[in-house]
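Why this split exists: single-chain examples teach little about how molecules sit against one another. For that reason, every record in the complexes split bundles all components of an assembly together and asks for one structure covering all of them. Below is a record exactly as it appears in the raw files.
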Amino acid sequence: MIQARLMGRVTIEDVAERAGVSVATVDRVLNSRATVRPRNAARVEAAIRALNYQPDRLAARLARQRSYRFCFVLPRGGNIFMRDLATEIESHARHLAGERVSADILYTDIFDPEALSASLLSVSGKYDGVALVALDHPRVREAIQHIASHGAEVVTLVSDAPGAARSHFVGIENAAAGRTAATLLGRYLGGRRGKIGIIAGSLALRDHAERHFGFAQVIAAEYRDLSLLPVQEGRDNPERSMELAAGMIAREGDLVGIYNIGAGTEGIIEALQSSGRSRDIVFVAHELNEITRHALLDGAVDVVIAQDPGHEARSAMRVLMARCDKAAIIAAQERISVDIFVKDNLP
Amino acid sequence: MIQARLMGRVTIEDVAERAGVSVATVDRVLNSRATVRPRNAARVEAAIRALNYQPDRLAARLARQRSYRFCFVLPRGGNIFMRDLATEIESHARHLAGERVSADILYTDIFDPEALSASLLSVSGKYDGVALVALDHPRVREAIQHIASHGAEVVTLVSDAPGAARSHFVGIENAAAGRTAATLLGRYLGGRRGKIGIIAGSLALRDHAERHFGFAQVIAAEYRDLSLLPVQEGRDNPERSMELAAGMIAREGDLVGIYNIGAGTEGIIEALQSSGRSRDIVFVAHELNEITRHALLDGAVDVVIAQDPGHEARSAMRVLMARCDKAAIIAAQERISVDIFVKDNLP
DNA sequence: CTGAAAGCGCTTACAG
DNA sequence: CTGAAAGCGCTTACAG
């Protein structure tokens, strides 16, 4: 130990010498690349242990000349969050250019199973790793299977397809996000009695459905004084969401809260503000961006539940790189958290 | 561009060839290592641009043979959070052993300026980087200055010393954490009127003082129905905190909330539960650990404000490595967020 | 099943 | 001010 520190780093050469074999043989047992005579394998392993040898990851990557060609499949014409995600992907890809990483972005209609699976098939075989905002559909699972069986690593991003051959999901637990929204809305209402309006993009989206499920579960179990209006689908569209919100505000005199599961938050803010009942109705929305940040400071939105697109972009690339290298990931580092923002803890 | 992709990676050799110089000269302009004839420098820069050359970071680190010897200075006999932090540092140091990183931990009495500065001076000159849980005191600033002027990079961790020669602070904005606690406590009380008890470890600790400041500021400005009891100092000790909490619960009939700025949360939970007023008093505490996690699920604690010790350990090492290499950091990745946890978004 | 040797893309003395 | 050459610690054909 003291030897090792004084003598500098322990190299594969030191291990080879001590085991009485060549570095190639050490490499073979280290990376289980080829069969090594058991006796030699044992001697190598003993030497590794005796010297507390740690292979130099940098040297290995350099020698291997491995490059990482990644493709990110994102929704075409996405909402603010998806645009932020694309920006983060581009920015981090630039950052990783010095580590042989390149990332293309392919925009497609992720809500159309045929279009999405066609896009996936079109990139199959061309990349080392693919990250996609998934739709949970047999056709899509099939396309993911195709990519994976052609040697690429696949991760889902933001929206998962649980049954599919993806090796990892980079995103939040959406049911937990919905429960979190419910608890904060419920506690902010502090025993007030009334109705809660819910607007989703579309309940056909797995993440929206899961948030709704979690939200409804907590309200039903813990806030008996609150009742849920039927979910309205705003298609993540501000105008449509505004009309839906304006409608419920006008119809329901005892509307005390609104939960926006998807995008289009600016429309709902507009409806709240022009109704004059903004102060009175607790409003919980998703994702932190220019609009929701401003609205939190304004008081138009009370709580934002969020996932960090920068973290997701970096995590997707780290996970894909690790999978390509068959290396382990740091689970805690790659966990995407359900973030809560109020006006006081904004970044 | 297409050339570059077809031909594989652009190397320093390609740049040298195109510029009509040797690789050593390219290296000189790349790293501004020595004076290069302006004409040659210009040709090199032109070649870099023309070929869109990106130096290979891995090869550079390998050739440089740089190692990173870090020292983490932590409080001896610290609370749960500090123990978690130490665990995370050890675990991440093990992870980075394959990248020539080693990290020692030195435990000392960080609350005693003399002891802390003596510890700092004892490691000065022996490491490439030092991360310390700081105390904001002239003696400590002086010791930090000493380490920095002997060539080591210094970052503060969790607790900052703003005037000092540290190049970065790895931790949260504590005033924001206090404001966040106040907003959630205020909103959870939903207009109820009464007194708020505050327990701190010690207001001599900068982070505790800042949290208190932020908390008081928001309550004063936004929650006129709530009034603050004088801060009690529990020294982060569960027994003492229990007595303080029990005292205020007994004395103040209209106690509606408690904010624990520091550690010792288990003591306050005990006081609340044995008083039978746990359900009635909103309790906000700091840091997520076995105790507070359990208490959130129990309902004994309503909200936890936290910083992630795993993120802090990883960030401190990344920042120290970057500073040693004179490389840029990714600001968003190194920002430590003020996390909010309720029972529903626990990791 | 094993080893000698070349090579990955940089950096670093050293000589000029 | 500049370049030829060795070296960082691995991996990879290739020959045996």
